[in-house]
Design a protein that fits this description.
This protein has helices at about 10-25, 25-50, 55-65, 70-100, 100-120, 130-145, 150-175, 180-205, 210-235, 240-275, 280-295, 305-340, 350-380, 400-425, 430-445, 450-475, 485-500, 505-520, 530-555, 560-580, 600-615, 620-650, 660-680, 685-705, 710-730, 740-745, and strands at about 295-300, 300. It is mainly alpha-helical. A hairpin with a 2-residue loop joins β1 (about 295-300) and β2 (about 300).
């Protein structure tokens, strides 16, 4: 009997499914295009109704602050308004001081714009818009007003009113017309990241992940961490629901970083053990790893919601409670097996290394499960509005390298100074446009990963806007009458630019097109049809952005090798800080380690630097791999150093554990040599770090063998030994940046008593 085929889906259902799919993808793009144009036209109508002198400024503001989600619009609008007010106050002060001294006025304006550009480059989040607008508004208000100082205050206040109209129109349209909330995106991001992390753990423990997958996954996790913090910082502007969970979302990000670092360290150690053929240790640990993946499921199904995560948190906690006893039993069996092996006594070099490998792996496993339990419990707490975990806040704070931010500010000041000098020397009527456009372009492009490319794209978009604007101003506007027809004429021209901004490769073109189309062709209450003035302004815009792009490309370009080397040095310096910084925060209970916490600064700082380095690398796979090698080395050694110092700080008050004893001095020497290695990597420093680590391991083993401490003290000493052992394995890892030095020093199995555990 022939099997019947499934009934065909009705045409209406197929059509509805296709429409639903379009609405979730391209439909959202066109909704955003519609909202951006609606906000621009609304701001234009209000500004014209209020009889403000330049309604085009309100339109321009809309395209600077508009975003697809409501949260970023509110956040950008808030910081933009704050920056506008600051720029207003500063520029009124500069006009009052230097109105009769144009050279001093241009120099002070260039200095102020440089300071604000440096601040915008330093703060890579929505606070950067406050700095951008503090500088841009000062130039926008002050440079035209400096030509008529007697009307400076009235000009400044009306310009602030125009900017405020654009901000309010953007926020209103974004919140009322088909609102898309960042909070919804945030929830889906948290759920997706938890699921993908669990899948990655299961695949890695099953040996189904190769090196390229590890690198790609970790880069994606870094981007997720940065993206989640950006979304969290804007979602608080949307609704009370997001504000009530803001602390837990910040903590969730921190705990994810900690858990991913622990798991990577554990995974890397197991890879090293497998590569050297340490079958006894691997076989002893494999049963534990097989038990982990089922812990992340509920009734055999993957966890999809925060409510289900509470069940996983309980499973992880219960499994963790049994781990120490089981690990001690497994270790005793392994030690007994080693003693029974004729060729390898438990106290021989190989037997000691095997037990040390086992102790290190189980310590990392315990800490990973503990961190994963914290991460899962925080995720589960999001199911309710209020929770005690909200009080424990550890924030991710993105910061650009201070020297790079200073160079961005200096570059902006030089560009403003040069163009200002050109304006004063030539008395060009469009010199004001030339200078203030450079201020805006420097500030907007400095926060982009490739500023020269962004400035060039904006320049090309501006040239296109000049051509379209000429058609509108001289070919369309004289033949229409009334605001409705004005909207009909502007809509298709604006829609093209807004659509470009929704495509990442063309976002720079779209931004330049939209902003400067409004500047050139945006109608005022009293229109002036002056072709000479129009062409002068268009030439000033293109010339200003061309000079800015050239400055980004020629004057210490951000994409040059110097910035990459500086960021890598900052990344390595995280290990220096982990080895040398004060431990006040580390001795606090785990849940109270907030923003000042050394571990939190270490975790968030390394990810932030890698995010910047990845943006600089672009599609250069060699640079990406090199960045990840340094990231893994930094995370492994830095976390081990923090754990080691934490254990030392909590030792009992007894003379045998006091500072100044031989074994404590050996550990201090290890930390000093490791920090020196990461401060300035070199083969001699690597050899010194390995030698110091070997000495410290021998010293701690001597303490353990010299007396019989209580069980808790012995476990603490064994943890100290495990951290030292892990630092050594990281330094001689064949995948680390130190691999060539480790090979030249013969740091391979059998090269020295402490080197048997790693290849």
């Amino acid at each position: 009997m022939q099997a019947s085929s499934p009934p065909a889906q009705p045409a209406a259902e197929r059509t509805f499914a296709a429409l639903a799919d379009w609405a979730r993808t391209d439909g959202l793009v066109w909704i955003y295009v519609f909202k951006a144009i609606a906000a621009a036209l609304l701001s234009l109508a209000i500004a014209m109704k209020l009889d403000l002198p330049q309604p085009r400024t309100a339109m321009t503001t809309v395209f600077i602050v508009m975003q697809p989600q409501s949260g970023p619009v509110f956040a950008k609008s808030f910081y933009r308004l704050c920056g506008t007010l600051v720029g207003l106050v500063v520029m009124l002060a500069l006009i009052g001081l230097f109105a009769q001294q144009p050279e001093l006025f241009i120099a002070s304006t260039a200095l102020w714009v440089g300071i604000c550009t440096a601040g915008a480059a330093r703060n890579r989040n929505f606070r950067s818009y406050g700095f951008v607008l503090a500088g841009y508004t000062a130039a926008l208000i002050g440079i035209p007003a400096s030509q008529h100082p007697d009307g400076a205050f009235m000009s400044a206040t009306t310009r602030v009113c125009e900017i405020s109209v654009g901000i309010l129109a953007s926020g209103f349209v974004s919140a009322v017309v088909f609102p898309q909330y960042t909070g919804d995106l945030l929830r889906s991001t948290v759920r997706r990241r938890f699921s993908s992390f669990v899948d990655y753990i299961s695949a890695a423990l099953a040996g189904q992940v190769d090196r390229s997958q590890i690198e790609a996954t970790n880069l994606r996790f870094v981007a997720d961490i940065v993206g989640l913090e950006a979304s969290r910082s804007t979602a608080v502007f949307e609704a009370p629901d997001a504000r009530m969970r803001s602390g837990r979302l910040a903590r969730l990000n921190t705990e994810f970083m900690s858990a991913s670092t622990r798991f990577h360290a554990l995974h890397q150690l197991m890879n090293r053990l497998r590569s050297e053929g340490a079958s006894a240790t691997v076989d002893a640990l494999e049963p534990y790893f097989r038990e982990i993946a089922p812990l992340f499921a509920k009734a055999g199904e993957p966890v999809l919601t925060a409510a289900d995560a509470a069940h996983v948190a309980r499973q992880l906690d219960a499994w963790r409670e049994t781990l120490p006893v089981r690990a001690r039993e497994t270790r005793a069996a392994l030690e007994k097996e080693l003693r029974a092996t004729p060729s390898q006594d438990a106290h021989s070099t190989g037997g000691t290394a095997t037990l040390l490998d086992f102790d290190t792996a189980t310590e990392l496993l315990y800490r990973f499960i503990r961190d994963m339990h914290e991460y899962t419990a925080t995720y589960a707490s999001l199911a309710v509005d209020t929770h005690s975990r909200e009080k424990w806040i550890a924030r991710y704070v993105p910061k650009t390298n201070g020297i790079a931010a200073g160079v961005a500010g200096l570059r902006a000041a030089i560009v403003i100074g040069l163009l200002g000098a050109f304006w004063l020397a030539t008395a060009w009527p469009s010199g004001t446009t030339l200078v203030l456009t450079a201020a805006a372009t420097c500030a907007l492009a400095s926060s982009a990963p490739q500023p020269a490319r962004m400035a060039t794209q904006m320049a090309i978009g501006t040239v296109l806007a000049s051509l379209v604007g000429m058609i509108l101003v001289f070919g369309v506007f004289p033949h229409i009458d009334g605001f409705p027809m004005l909207c009909v004429a502007l809509t298709p021209a604006l829609a093209f630019g807004v659509f470009l901004t929704t495509r990442p490769p063309y976002a720079g073109y779209g931004m330049g097109y939209c902003i400067f189309l409004c500047f050139l062709a945006g109608p005022d209450n009293v229109m002036q049809y002056n072709p000479d003035s129009y062409m002068n302004d268009a030439l000033a815009l293109a010339m200003s952005m061309g000079v800015t792009a050239a400055a980004f490309a020629a004057f210490l370009p951000p994409s040059a090798r110097w910035l990459r080397e500086r960021l890598l040095a900052d990344l390595r310096r995280a290990v220096v800080e982990a080895c040398r910084a004060r431990l006040t925060e580390l001795r606090e209970p785990r849940e109270r380690r907030g923003l000042p916490g050394l571990r939190n600064r270490f975790e968030s700082g390394t990810r932030d630097l890698v995010f910047q380095l990845s943006a600089l690398a672009g599609n250069d796979q060699a640079q990406r791999r090199d960045t990840l090698r340094w990231l893994f080395a930094t995370l492994e050694v830095g976390n081990a150093a923090l754990d080691l110092r934490d254990e030392l700080a909590t030792l009992p008050a007894h003379p045998r554990y006091a500072k100044g004893t031989a074994w404590r001095d050996a550990i201090d020497a290890t930390l000093q040599s490791v920090s020196a290695l990461f401060d300035r990597p070199a083969a001699p420093r690597h050899a010194a770090a390995l030698a110091a680590t070997r000495t410290a391991i021998d010293a701690v083993q001597g303490v353990l063998n010299g007396f019989e401490p209580p069980r808790e003290e012995r476990r603490q000493l064994q943890r100290i030994l495990s951290h030292l052992h892990f630092i050594r394995t990281a330094l001689i890892d064949p995948q680390s940046p130190f691999a060539s030095w480790a090979e030249s020093e013969g740091a391979h199995p059998g090269a020295s008593p402490g080197a048997h555990h790693a290849s």
